Amino acid sequence: MAYSTRRLLPQHLQNRFINLLSPLVRLISKWGLSPNSFTVAGVILTAAGTGAFLAGFIRLAGICILLGGLCDTLDGLLARTTGRATRFGALLDSTVDRYAEFIMFSGIAAYFFFIDDYGTAAGTLLALGGSFMVSYTRARAESLGFDAKGGFMQRPERIVLIGSGAIIHLNALILAIWLVAFFANFTALQRIRCAYKQDSSEFKEEIIIKT
What we know:
This protein is an all-alpha fold and 211 residues long. It contains seven helices and no strands. Helix content is 83%, strand content 0%. α3 runs antiparallel to α4 (87-114) and α3 runs antiparallel to α6. The longest helix is centred in the last third of the chain and has 41 residues, at 170-210. The model has no long low-confidence stretch (mean pLDDT 85).
């Protein structure tokens, strides 16, 4: 059973962005670089962004986060373009993404803690928890046979919001953090609801068959 596929970043905008990257992906594929190298580069750039946050260079941090997100997009595109997509690569990508978000949000929380903005620091931790729950609910639901891929606030939205907010202004970053905190947890609940509806539908179908 499908459910709402509405997202903060519409799919057609994401598709246009991916099309714009196609020439770059073809060029990179000729250089022989592996998709996993971009996976690792993504987390390194995110860690650099975290360091920039802690040093107070907020706009530089935002740039690093967006570049890290770009690497995360390139690794998947490169894997599919070159036919080098593997199950281990998918596992590595998912694992590194979680570490990258943990590093990013922890660094942001530490920054706000250091400047005595404890409310935003708490909001950042709430955003971190929601981000992990978005991934966990999908993984757990799919392990049980449910389809739970959608939701309003997925990883691309989180990265774009945080990175762009940091580049624009500190207040924009604070707004982005609270948006992620709310909508990431909302997305996790969306996925739980989706699994519940699928399970209820399957139960009703089983009752009908038995009767």
